[in-house]
Design brief:
This protein is an alpha+beta fold and 559 residues long. The chain is built from 13 helices and 28 strands. The protein has three domains: 199 residues, no CATH class; 217 residues, Aldolase class I (TIM Barrel, Alpha-Beta Barrel); 43 residues.
Length: 559
């Protein structure tokens, strides 16, 4: 039996509702073996604020709850009842603006979830329960996030399990029906459960990309790229030409974020089409990065088209991100914005000739519910628009709530950026948020989201490194990251100039790039620092046990 806790926003007054049939709506719940469906029918025009169904579920010390983070970068892992998630850094408590600035990349300000409390966890779109040492799971998974995000919550201390629909801002007309939940409930062995969820219940097809390996410029130079650097590194990756598929230009080619067709002529005197042609000349796919919904404060778009931007309640430009000196977001429901994005992608993909776009910071579009739509609905609309303007070209998503792009994007980042300092730099150590660049979180996400690969899309676990410059990794730490990426994902990138590789480093690059058949049999976090991964590599069973904090591992035994 699920108890209802709903809230309506009636003219600024928050009205609670706990009855399935009340003055404002009727909620119909159909629960049977293998599924849970709920439909809400409005009796009058209403605006939703929150809705949650809660039931009892017993937990003991051996129970684990899988928590899928809000978006690509958000920490994702299995939790036991004695653990807790990291909350935002203490400075975020100064006020709403401080909390927004430190937590804008996730759901901290939504008011739907809790962080930093022992035994209290949440998961977006899907979750599962299992016992330690057991690969049989009970999976709960939403069929679609097109009406709003589905959040599964537990309080393992009070033995409570809740299903939340992020309905904030949803406006319903009288007699309008709203499909609140359509959830699969699957009990099966780990891999079989995910096959049933993604293929049978959601009806997804296997992604077009099965394996992709190559170069991206970000993690060696960040935005400090130019024509000379890229052409030099293009020649360098040729040392592994037989196992390289793609060469990607990252941030730094444009004059401003948002002004994607305005190329920095000092850095790229021949333009980026020239680079794409050179990439094709070497036999690789050409990829390019952009953050299609973001516009930095100093961009030409902000100056010339302020009406294109998302506004707050007072009609001011809505600030979405600290990057690039601060940025706003384009409003995808503005027809001129949609035409602008069509022009941008037509130019990049058809005139410049790029084969794949890496689309980043997509969560910025849906931070704020608007136009009577929920955050999930807005994000799904944004993803649909991106697929429309990209046609059949390849899309690699990043910084995106995963439920919105399953079965639509060809590939997707499933973890945070890797930090070039293995132990982490200052933002890691003060734990700014759960999305900050971190080798440790990147590896955890790669492992605990490995089930998405080949089902929802092709997994991009982010880059690995083999170089020595601009990097603070030991050799075993480099091999550990590379091996985990190869086991758990099929979009494999380096940012190194392979021309500088030793013969031994080149050997490992080719080994990690090679399209091998991996199957993860089990992943157990043995304690706070140690993870044991048992997997098959081309049919041979292997064990990789490693320490997250030090990088010490059995890596040499499993390569």
């Amino acid at each position: 039996m699920y108890l209802l806790n709903a809230k309506l926003n009636l003219g600024g007054c928050i009205v609670p509702c706990t009855d399935y049939d009340n003055d404002y709506f009727t909620l119909t719940l159909k629960e049977k073996k293998g599924s849970l469906k709920a439909t809400l029918t409005a009796k009058k025009a209403i605006t939703m604020k929150a809705l949650e169904l809660t039931t009892e579920r017993a937990f003991d010390r051996n129970d684990l709850f899988f928590a899928n983070g809000y978006q690509s970068w958000s920490t994702t892992k299995e939790y036991a009842r004695y653990e807790k998630t990291n909350d935002l850094m203490p400075i975020s408590n100064i006020g709403k603006f401080a909390r927004f600035c430190t937590g804008a990349m996730s759901d901290y300000s939504f008011g739907l979830t809790e962080y930093g409390k022992t035994g209290i966890f949440h998961s977006y779109t899907y979750t599962y329960f299992r016992k330690k040492g057991d690969r049989k799971i009970t999976l709960y998974g939403s069929k679609s996030e097109r009406k709003g995000y589905t959040i599964f919550k537990v309080d393992m201390n009070k033995n409570i399990f809740s299903i939340v629909k992020d309905v904030e801002g949803l406006m319903l007309k009288k007699d309008e029906e709203y499909d609140l939940f359509d959830i699969a409930v699957i009990e099966a062995e780990y891999n079989k459960a995910f096959d049933k969820y993604f293929f049978d219940f959601m009806g997804l097809e296997k992604p077009r990309i099965q394996h992709l390996a190559g170069y991206t410029s970000w993690y060696n130079y960040f935005a400090n790229i130019n024509e000379e650097i890229l052409l030099r590194d293009l020649a360098g990756i040729g040392r592994a030409k037989e196992c390289t598929d793609i060469f990607q230009i990252d941030d730094g080619y444009q004059t401003a974020t948002g002004d994607w067709l305005s190329i920095d002529k000092k850095k790229f005197p021949h333009g980026v089409k020239y680079i794409a042609d050179k990439i094709h000349g070497e036999g690789y796919k050409a990829g390019i990065w952009l953050a299609p919904f973001c516009v930095q404060l100093t961009s030409k778009i902000v100056r010339e088209h302020p009406d294109w931007l998302i506004k707050d309640e007072k009609g001011r430009n809505f600030f979405v991100h600290l990057g690039w000196g601060g940025s706003y977001a384009l409003d995808i429901y503005n027809p001129e914005v949609r035409e602008y994005l069509k022009t941008v992608f037509h130019t990049i993909l058809n005139e410049w000739g790029f084969d794949m776009v890496k689309l980043d910071f997509l969560y910025t579009e849906c931070i704020k519910p608007r136009n009577g739509k929920t955050r999930g609905e807005i994000m799904c609309d944004g993803v649909d628009l991106l697929r429309e303007v990209c046609g059949d070209k390849l899309i690699l998503g990043c910084g995106v709530p995963l439920g919105a792009c399953m079965g639509i994007f060809d590939a997707c980042r499933i973890g945070c950026d890797v930090n070039p300092v293995f132990e982490g730099d200052f933002p890691n150590k003060i734990k700014v948020n759960n999305e900050i660049p971190s080798a440790q979180n990147s590896m955890k996400n790669a492992i605990f989201r490995s089930h998405l690969d080949g089902r929802a899309f092709c997994n991009d676990p982010d880059v690995f490194f083999l170089r020595d410059i601009n990097l603070k990794f030991t050799w075993p730490q480099k091999l550990l990251l590379g091996k985990i990426n190869a086991i758990c994902g099929n979009v494999l990138f380096v940012s190194d100039n392979a021309e500088w590789y030793t013969d031994n480093e080149l050997k490992y690059l080719k080994d990690f790039f090679e399209n091998k058949e991996y199957e993860i049999l089990s992943a157990e976090q043995l304690d706070e620092e140690v993870i044991e991964l048992i997997y098959k590599e081309n049919g041979e069973e292997k064990n990789l046990t490693f320490n997250l904090n030090t990088g010490e591992s059995t890596i040499f035994d499993c390569i």
